[in-house]
Amino acid sequence: xxxxxxxxxxKKVLTQNVxxxxxxxxxxxxxxxxxxxxxxxxxxxDSDKSVWFQGRAQWAFATAYVExxxxxxYLTACESLSNFSQRHCFDTDxxxxxxxxxxxxxxxxxxxxxxxxxxxxxxxxxxxxxxQKASKHEDAEAQRRYAWELFQKMEEIRTSDVxxxxxxxxxxxxxxxxxxxxxxxxxxxxxxxxxxxxxxxNQYIDDLLDDxxxxxxxxxxxxVLEQCAPDGTIQSDHFEGRLLNPGHALEGSWFIMNEAxxxxxxxxxxxxxxxxxxxxxxxxDKEYGGIIYFKxxxxxxxxxxxxxxxxxxxxxxxVIANLMAYTLTKNETYKERFILxxxxxxxxxxxxxxxxxxxxxxxxGRLSTPLKGNMYKGPFHIxxxxxxxxxxxx
Amino acid sequence: xxxxxxxxxxKKVLTQNVxxxxxxxxxxxxxxxxxxxxxxxxxxxDSDKSVWFQGRAQWAFATAYVExxxxxxYLTACESLSNFSQRHCFDTDxxxxxxxxxxxxxxxxxxxxxxxxxxxxxxxxxxxxxxQKASKHEDAEAQRRYAWELFQKMEEIRTSDVxxxxxxxxxxxxxxxxxxxxxxxxxxxxxxxxxxxxxxxNQYIDDLLDDxxxxxxxxxxxxVLEQCAPDGTIQSDHFEGRLLNPGHALEGSWFIMNEAxxxxxxxxxxxxxxxxxxxxxxxxDKEYGGIIYFKxxxxxxxxxxxxxxxxxxxxxxxVIANLMAYTLTKNETYKERFILxxxxxxxxxxxxxxxxxxxxxxxxGRLSTPLKGNMYKGPFHIxxxxxxxxxxxx
Lengths: 394, 394
Fold this sequence. Notes:
homodimer
């Protein structure tokens, strides 16, 4: 494996194909912010804006600026995203919307989640690092302060009773893996921007890792549960309790390996690679290649009818997780899997004609829809794969 | 076409395959009510109960009793469903839940809808007719009274501000086709059980038909919109505004043809058959057969990644709509389409081994998951197809 060649290729696709697609077609020159609901050729399919993606795109452009290339367009995009988000994406109660109109009027507010907030936090944290690198120290400081304040506000929301959970928590209590996983990444990104908060954030991360280990890691089933009972047991008589999401678990596995790297912890490395091994075995399609979307933990009939489709983002997570595991362990199995996952994504998802990846394939690799984005797909997982990949390959 | 042969076959599949599957595996002998999350062989995949299906199953068993066969088991099932629903499916505010536990504890309450209520209404209305036929006049009267009271309660909910719409109605106002369509069917079923309320219900239906004609029928696009702007124009710059749901529109088309039959109205027959013609052209898959799930009204890239799958219920609606159109117009095209849709469903969905239909096929007819039910699939569309089919074929 020629790491140098891979690194060059990753940088090239990121800076000449993926990010330009979003800069050219996504960024809204009139109102600010980004459209993500784009067709194959970049034309706008839906003029509403995803609040998640105002933060996620900010993260992607800012991190590319810090880690890959000091391109002025990335900073300009971040400024537009940051202003649009701060001006238009907050309700009067301090919580963020989920979807706003082109000119920033509220369209949908999610009652159960605080993920608009987490993505705004990592967007601001990364932007502060980019501004720092561009020697705009005052602006960097303002973004840092903003990220920290929003983190505290998010914690307030999360630990209060303003959220309306989907399931009645008295009669059907459960824990979701998504929450500690996304919070782990949020805290890691925040720590990069605010080194002075390191101790608080390390403690916060310790608690999240404890939760993940205690509740979601199930050695007797060799899997990471996506949802479990409050005590961590599998809710085997419910669809949601048996549902495995390999892409999600692979994403979590490399957040944990990243933490292992930061802390030089062999115990965390062991945890991350174990999660990766289990969920690769469950998720990788040995017949057609690619990571499928859902599996049933007890091998019962799938509940979601599109369970065997190949989405873009689980492939990104499989690439990063295996490359990171290889970098940290030098175990050749991970190298082979990285090559497999990378090749699958390149051949099946990348559009070298109009730029960016497709998002949705049938199990056998046929395209389901040629669109490039919507309220859930935009510049995040794919740029992150190339950015983290470059860093690991160097 | 040998109508007699079809009628015998429809009755046989309904009474010897479909309803027995649900009676045997779905009905909960311990707690009452019905489980619908069943695997291929009828084993329970999720022990929660769908509130929609406590009402919908009641409708199916009761209507089969009235229209097809006076089977005591159907009445017993209705009693169990009715008791479970009345005892366990209502919140203290008078609204119904969406999902409850096996023993009837609240699990999910939907904040946007009143469809649990509409299905409880048609369940009680049909049950009252079955009880009447069984000469249980007092019980029939109680069910009639209950259905009417719940209809008024549902109207109160629908026209008040207790529901929380998904989209901000100030900035992103819209109308959904599902609402007048389901209310139309609710009023039609109620009218059968409460002939003394005929005048009120006819007026109510007139208003719904006006809404459907005014807002959702788009001759310039030759389609029935699933969602539109408040004035009926297409919301062409939004995914949801361009989304066509052929199965839904076909269902609406035969509710309207049924009304044409009731009123002997050639104008309504013209409306129903026009809806059918448009949406058959859009929805029928000329390559593989079957009605696909979603299409884009302006032929832009599909937004839902599973848009081209074949679900059970749109096939049921295509069968009924074409058979009804043929019965009312004698136009041979509808006969041919009925034969096509019926054959597609029989070959691809019906499980002659364990009973009941499968629910979810890939576009080319391959099974996506072999389960027979979940919170959205249970005894409703399929029994209804056989019941209404028998009636039309006689």
